[in-house]
Specification:
Layout (H helix, E strand, L loop, with lengths): L2 E2 L10 E3 L4 H10 L14 H8 L6 H14 L1 H29 L3 H4 L1 H39 L3 H12 L6 H32 L20 H10 L3 H10 L7 H8 L2 H21 L8 H12 L1 H33 L6 H18 L2 H31 L21 H19 L3 H23 L26 E3 L6 E3 L4 E3 L5 E3 L7 H16 L1
Antiparallel strand pairs: 1-2, 2-3, 3-4, 5-6
Organism: Microbacterium rhizomatis
Protein name: Thiamine permease
GO molecular function: cytosine transmembrane transporter activity
Length: 538
């Protein structure tokens, strides 16, 4: 039963409870607190988190990417570049998962501390589109594998793939994705090992596979290994994936998850080992149409038959659970914030499936490749700014509430000029360099973007003011409860109870309590801004 806490001055009393609201738990089974802070009761243990995140281990894209870069720079340089990229991903994601786990925030909510309330909306739509494009690629791999084995029109298999993929993400990470990936992981491991052994038996061992020279003549503006490293920066979006999965981790598992699940150990296998396997398979298996994701898939299915088909379908279904889950979550977040349209995540998952199918039918993969290159600049800039923010927060307590990240709609400004400026300028430079279509632009665009974004924001923070991060307002519910992580407060608008970390007072409705989702309403934001201006003048 709900209880009331003694009111503060003339404020209406908070309606609080110490246990989860059953209605909120029911919503979370579908939405995973997409617009809310994840409470500790919804966190996942070590094993469950590892199985859920292992969906990123199985992308055929990374297997073929390694072989592709090896054909450009030679095997030796490719291996060095992949090793450095794997180490970089492991190190950065240690800090990403730590911030995500301690805050319980999504990338979208966390980005409000980087760019402000309005600026963060841009992050959600870019992120959602990126996840959709990855879903299209991996979904097409499954469709091609099915066509290679059974025949028939590719459009039929597009429909089958989407129809089978969407239901897998309707239950979210904790309820469904964790369990699906628990069964798919052994299939992936067996398939990868089996593909290597099978290819060696059928086609013979290639003793020079690790020392092959480049087979494609390409003008490079840097050493081969640096070119490879820059190519892998183009998939920094997986760091955003890490953040959103890690928010469901348990605080006590931060070190384990940081080193094993999301960190160096994971990327050693995901990028380095998978990369070596990709290089080896392409060196051993004859490629009729050159190195491509589709060519490798068809070769595996033709070589291994039904076992190869099961391997491809299982592994790519596994990675697409992550793509579809995050794409649907961020469409939900974007439309809730910008258009105030509150629809359940399962419906957005269906929308994502329809968009996927449309893109597949249009066959615009050349456009998708170009988009992924340009969005890489935008996301690389986000990663650099996020890292600077984390370092800044570790040295200086930006927020007055024990170092908590402020993200609530009524307590963050519309824009953080330092973060938003760094993001726009650096992304613009990166996109401009890519648009030159020159060897220099293709190699250096993303490293320059990363350095520029981090440097501009670090410089801006030397002149930062508290108003960049928070709106100064009175009547914070966080001050009114003993434990902001365990006390649930009822929202006057939706009548549901969420942990006090995300709750605010609504000056447009007699200062009653309001949750972070309902606080996206325009009327509340206007009233909160007016209250902040009045407080500053006072």
């Amino acid at each position: 039963m709900s209880t009331t806490r003694e009111s503060k001055i003339s404020l209406p009393p908070l309606v609080v409870r110490q246990t989860d609201d059953p209605h909120v738990v029911s919503d979370a089974a579908r939405d995973d607190y997409a617009e809310h802070v994840v409470p500790k009761t919804w966190r996942i243990g070590r094993a469950g988190m590892a199985f859920a995140w292992s969906s990123l281990l199985t992308a055929m894209f990374t297997v073929v990417l390694s072989a592709t870069v090896a054909s450009v720079v030679g095997t030796a340089d490719a291996i060095i570049g992949i090793a450095l990229a794997s180490a970089t991903y492991g190190l950065i994601n240690y800090f990403m998962q730590k911030t995500a786990t301690t805050s319980g925030l999504t990338v979208g909510l966390f980005s409000r501390s980087l760019f402000g309330y309005s600026g963060a909306a841009l992050v959600t739509i870019v992120y959602s589109l990126t996840a959709i494009w990855f879903a299209v690629f991996e979904g097409s791999v499954v469709a091609v594998a099915l066509q290679a084995y059974f025949g028939g029109p590719i459009q039929l298999w597009y429909v089958v793939v989407v129809a089978l993929s969407v239901p897998l993400v309707l239950g979210g990470v904790r309820v469904w994705i964790e369990k699906v990936n628990k069964w798919l992981l052994p299939i992936f491991v067996a398939g990868m090992v089996g593909a290597v052994i099978w290819a060696t038996v059928v086609y013979g061992y290639a003793p020079d596979w690790a020392n092959k020279p480049a087979t494609i003549t390409t003008a490079l503006a840097a050493p081969g290994w640096l070119y490879v490293y820059a190519v892998y920066m183009g998939i920094f979006a997986t760091m955003m994936y890490c953040f959103d999965f890690a928010r469901l981790g348990q605080p006590k598992d931060i070190k384990f998850n940081g080193w094993i699940t999301f960190g160096p150990v994971f990327y050693f296998f995901s990028y380095f080992v998978n990369g070596l396997i990709g290089i080896y398979l392409v060196a051993v298996i004859p490629q009729d149409e050159g190195v491509s994701e589709i060519g490798v898939v068809v070769s595996i299915v033709k070589m291994m038959g039904i076992l190869g088909l099961i391997f491809i379908v299982a592994t790519q279904t596994k990675i697409n659970t992550a793509n579809l889950y995050l794409a649907s979550s961020y469409l939900e977040s974007f439309f809730a914030q910008v258009f105030k349209l509150k629809l359940p995540r399962w419906l957005w998952a269906v929308v994502v499936g329809i968009v996927m199918l449309g893109v597949m039918f249009l066959d615009v993969f050349s456009f998708l490749l170009q988009w992924l290159a340009y969005q890489g600049a935008i996301i690389v800039a986000w990663v650099a700014i996020a890292l600077v923010q984390m370092a800044y927060r570790s040295r200086k307590n930006v927020n007055r509430k024990g170092g908590l990240i402020e993200f609530r709609p009524g307590r963050v400004p519309g824009a953080n000029p330092g973060g938003l400026g760094a993001w726009i300028i650096s992304s613009g430079v990166g996109i401009a360099l890519l648009a030159t279509n020159s060897p220099f632009g293709g190699t250096w665009a993303l490293p320059i973007t990363f350095i520029l974004a981090g440097g501009i924001y670090a410089l801006a923070l030397l002149f930062a003011r508290p108003a960049w991060f928070t709106l100064r307002r009175p009547n914070d519910p966080r001050d009114e409860v003993e434990d902001i992580w365990e006390t649930r407060v009822q929202c006057h608008n939706c009548k549901k109870s969420y942990i006090a970390v995300e709750m605010d007072r609504d000056p447009s409705h007699e200062n009653q309590a309001i949750c972070s989702l309902c606080a996206n309403a325009h009327g509340f934001r206007v009233a909160a801004k007016h209250e902040a201006e009045t407080t500053s003048r006072g």
